[in-house]
Write a structure and sequence with these properties.
Residues 21-404 form the AMP-dependent synthetase/ligase domain. The protein is α/β, with parallel strands linked by helices and 584 residues long. It has a domain at 442-565: GMP Synthetase, Chain A, domain 3 (2-Layer Sandwich), CATH 3.30.300.30. Helix 1 (17-26) packs across helix 2 (42-58), helix 2 (42-58) packs across helix 3 and helix 7 (204-217) packs across helix 9 (240-246).
């Protein structure tokens, strides 16, 4: 048997590009993309991708060149997920909520050769390019992406336009074979919101295997109608950019993730699947009556990641017609690495118990060789008791190749054959993992480890709490203690000032051990968030450092107005904040 050899018949390098080739053959006339009044079939999408790849080659884009794109969830970004690697290049999708400084940093570090920009972001791109010019004489060529459904004609003097590249290219272009499945397919930047951006490199093999694992783990059936409520720039849409093609589904592209647009698309196109961060739950739940539309075609499957969604939030979403599956992952893991697979026997449990199970991060996707929770000092696995905390570690073919041009950070991330996530979790007796915190967010108060996630889950059960985040603050006796930041829902009169700090503390006393009760509650109009909707705890930690707690009553060095001026929310982030997100 040792003499049997690999050959072209029994060994083909893995790449998600084969998903599009197959879709064009077997789902040729099935709708591939819907964007407002524009629609394409899979055969048309394949031909458009071939045409674009051919045009990229004519622009001298080739092997290992980086092609960046700054655009919302429009058909062009979807097509580039296939066309760019078909040309042999590497796709870099840029977070559209970044400021010019960070975009310039990414363009410089990635050495992008071409930048495709949606017409709405031309001014932002020009600012970034001006900053880039101060760093290097090498700037990428720019291609303008006009709206394919309602062209505006906006070019700002530029000659290259996306649809013209499609028209100029050869739809019969034959992409070269991927010879090495370890070759890079995508470059995604992440920094965890506090440091210089790091470029996470994905391989063709990792992208292929992760895609298959996710459509299996989520049990995505044939002909899904997938709503793009998750940014395609976020871990390449958690690989569903390639996954929808693998299932011969329909991509419903969405320029803006407003409640009105999401409900409209769900109802009009009978959406079956969507992904999102938990912040989108609030957008859907808080929708005005005129923005909502009935979901009459069965539950919409939602895969969510990020902070563990509190059980009460899951229950509310279920009543609206959404079925939630929780996942956990990182940019470095090519998107979700754990999925909370549902077991039939749980259907008999009370809804509240079901919600608690769904809030767990779950078990590893099939791509991973293993996922565990370990004591990083000894590398010993923690007991499966659901209580003993350690760091979540992963290993498998879907883990990143490494950080681009950063061997030091790469070596630090890979520890004893494992990728150390920086997330603290436990393993339950049934083998399901549950995050308890980021390692830096565990609050150690008088020797007791307090999970901010557990405290936040209790706070979310309060009927008036819209958003909650818990961080450590200084304490003269215990070293540090919990500080809760809360955004409230309005009452019937449209006010929020009827809920006081004492009300929240009293509520917590009834539902938590004494040592976990927050020693300070600060109300904010909105909690600061990253571009993908995750609460930015590093800002809150800085604010909490200015609070002073006496042995009896809490006091603070800053007034509430000073605190509120010190942060900005989801749509008004300080310019100095760097990149979202390494966590899903």
């Amino acid at each position: 048997m040792d003499k049997l050899q690999k050959c072209g018949a029994n060994y083909v390098p893995l790449t998600p590009l084969t998903f599009l080739t197959r879709a064009a053959k077997v789902y040729a006339n099935r709708t591939s993309i819907i964007y407002e009044g524009t629609a394409f079939t899979w055969q048309q999408t394949y031909q458009r991708c071939c045409s674009l790849a051919d045009s990229l080659r004519s622009l001298n884009i080739g092997k290992n060149d980086v092609v960046s794109v700054l655009a919302p969830n429009i058909p062009a970004v979807y097509e580039m997920h296939f066309a760019v690697p078909m040309a042999g290049a590497i796709l870099n999708t840029i977070n559209t909520r970044l400021d010019a400084k960070n975009i310039a940093t990414i363009l410089h570090h990635s050495e992008a050769k071409l930048l495709l920009v949606d017409y709405q972001f031309l001014d932002l791109a020009d600012q970034a390019l001006a900053m880039l010019a101060a760093k290097t004489t090498t700037k990428p060529s720019v291609v303008v992406i006009d709206d394919v459904d309602s062209p505006t004609g906006v070019r700002q003097g530029r000659q290259l336009e996306y649809e013209k590249l499609i028209q100029m290219g050869n739809p019969g272009f034959v992409p070269g074979d991927i010879e090495d499945e370890w070759a890079p397919i995508a470059l995604n930047y992440t920094s965890g919101t506090t440091s210089e951006p790091k470029g996470v490199v994905y391989s063709h093999r990792g992208a292929y295997l992760s895609t298959l694992s996710l459509i299996l783990g989520w049990e995505m059936g044939s002909e899904p109608v997938y709503l793009w409520s998750l940014p395609m720039f976020h871990c390449n849409g958690w690989t569903f950019t390639w996954g929808v093609a693998a299932r011969g589904g329909t991509n419903v592209c969405l320029r803006n993730t407003t409640a009105k647009d999401m409900y409209r698309c769900i109802s009009q196109h009978k959406v079956t699947h969507m992904c999102c961060a938990p912040i989108v739950f609030n957008i859907l739940l808080e929708a005005k009556p005129h923005e909502r539309q009935e979901i009459g075609h069965g539950p919409v499957q939602i895969l969510t990641g990020g902070a563990p969604p509190p059980a009460p939030l899951l229950e509310k979403m279920e009543t609206l017609g959404f079925h939630i599956t929780h996942a956990y992952g990182l940019t470095e893991a090519t998107g979700p690495a754990l999925v909370s697979e549902w077991q039939t026997k749980w259907n008999e449990l009370p809804r509240q118990d079901q919600a608690k199970l769904k809030a767990r991060q779950g078990i590893s996707i099939l791509t991973l060789a293993d996922a565990d929770v370990k004591d990083l000092e000894t590398m010993a696995s923690v007991p499966r008791d659901g209580k003993t905390m350690g760091e979540i570690v992963l290993r498998g073919s879907s883990i990143m190749k490494g950080y681009f041009k950063d061997p030091e950070a790469t070596n630090k991330a890979f520890k004893n054959g494992w990728f150390a996530t920086g997330d603290v979790g436990v393993v339950h007796p049934d083998g399901y993992l549950e995050i308890k915190d980021r390692s830096k967010d565990v609050i150690i108060s008088g020797g007791e480890n307090i999970s901010s996630v557990e405290l936040e889950s209790v706070l979310y059960k309060h009927p008036r709490v819209l958003e909650a985040a818990v961080v450590a603050m200084p304490h003269p006796r215990w070293g540090e203690s919990p500080c809760a930041f809360i955004a409230l829902k309005q009452n019937a009169s449209g006010k929020t000032d009827d809920v006081k700090e004492a009300d929240i503390v009293t509520y917590c006393r009834k539902n938590l051990p004494h040592y976990m009760i927050p020693k300070k509650v600060e109300f904010l109009p909105e909690l600061p968030k990253t571009s993908t909707g995750k609460i930015q705890k590093f800002q809150l930690r800085e604010l909490a450092k200015s609070f002073v707690v006496s042995q009896n009553l809490p006091s603070k060095q800053k007034t509430s107005q000073q605190v509120k001026r010190g942060i900005r929310g989801y749509d008004n982030q300080p310019q100095e904040q760097i990149l979202a997100l390494s966590r899903l």
